[in-house]
Specification:
By secondary structure, this protein is an alpha/beta fold. The protein has helices at about 90-100, 105-110, 120-130, 160-175, 220-230, 265-275, 295-300, 325-330, 370-375, 380-395, 400-415; strands at about 5-10, 15-20, 30, 35-40, 45, 50, 55-65, 65-70, 75, 140-145, 145-155, 180-185, 205, 210, 215, 255-260, 280-285, 310-315, 335-340, 345, 360, 430. Strands 1, 2, 7, 8 and 9 form a five-stranded antiparallel beta sheet that branches. Helix 4 packs across helix 5. It is globular, with a radius of gyration of 24 Å. GO terms for molecular function: UDP-glucosyltransferase activity; UDP-xylosyltransferase activity. It comes from Panthera tigris altaica.
Amino acid sequence: IVALYIYFFLSGQTLFKVVIKSLSPKELVRIHVPKPLDRNDGTFLVRYRMYETVSEGLKIEVLYGDEHVAQSPYILKGPVYHEYCECPEEDPQAWQKTLSCPTEEPQIAKDFASFPSINLQQMLNEVPKRFGDERGAVVHYTILNNHIYRRSLGKYTDFKMFSDEILLSLARKVLLPDIEFYINLGDWPLEHRKVNETPGPLPIVSWCGSLDSRDIILPTYDISHSTLEAMRGVTNDLLSIQGNTGPSWINKTEKAFFRGRDSREERLQLVQMSKENPELLDAGITGYFFFQEKEKELGKAKLIGFFDFFKYKYQVNVDGTVAAYRYPYLMLGDSLVLKQDSTYYEHFYMALKPWKHYVPIKRNLSDLLEKIKWAKENDEEAKKIAKEGQLRARDLLQPHRLYCYYYRVFREYAERQSSKPEIRDGMELVAQPDDDTSVCQCHRERPSREEL
């Protein structure tokens, strides 16, 4: 067991050193530190993964030679727990304060405006009939005493592994409110009833919203899973993308770029425009499913690693079946994002502004070439928008912001329930995973199940 991990890395020609160790020399803990991520703007991301609880805390030293940099050493007061340690904070307000959760989330406020009260019995009567048929992709969850129970409605519910894992991760960190809700695992939002209709809309939880639906939006399964992968130290996630943004702005290829499946007709248009304007746009379809008859005419492009997208100055974001879930990744790069106008949105879109964080393009792409030309002729302004967008995305998509968002949705939902959640017939317990490689020592007094 090693108590101390050191990493050296270069920024230009400057040698830095990062040391992560337990605050107490008596505590020997295993900590894995992957290679630091150079964001090419003078900042680095250094990740670490713990395999044991640190009682007193961690000391993180950032050194230049033997001198401490900035406010180094940084102290994380203990106890500090690893990802799989089940030791929830029983005071949610204290937990939110520790995470510096935002006091307001405009998208959450907007989503819940349609639901001043949530009638669980009405949900129980209506949701299975309306959305739980054989082709359904809805899962019914109850969280009670910080334990998670579920039953699947319909046969297209395999993606429940993503909702399971984020709910379990949250429950390990904070005491969740008792709630009963239905999550839609399909692409499209489900609830299209208007507020003034009788019966009114039901608060279905979805990963993607639209202007003509009333679903309550959570971060997509992709963002949620990516955040958990980042915490496990896996490479292709929302953090690693920030350390692989390609050449500096001046050395990027001055073209717009797109690769993707044929999941929307405008994507086919992109390829045609690319053929006619190769000096402005490089677009290709990598897989045909919806428009197979077009493959012979438009050709099939080779798959390309996502990090290589950022060799290009401009990225075209066009919807897939719903919102394109690559958008947060594109925003975290240092290319200018040209975003198609869309009726679909993810949980963080409301915090982004056109012409400040991205360049908008019309739904039918009729102004795309004009916008690419504008970017080429206004390089400094294009670079500024790309940077503003990247910085905003970094802030919005940090792991702690995701947890804050989930918790806020559940809290708002719980406050509106008109009756107590119950474990319904057919529900099964979603058990916390065993992690034999990690040692969990919870310092909080855990109430027994009888007390709960």
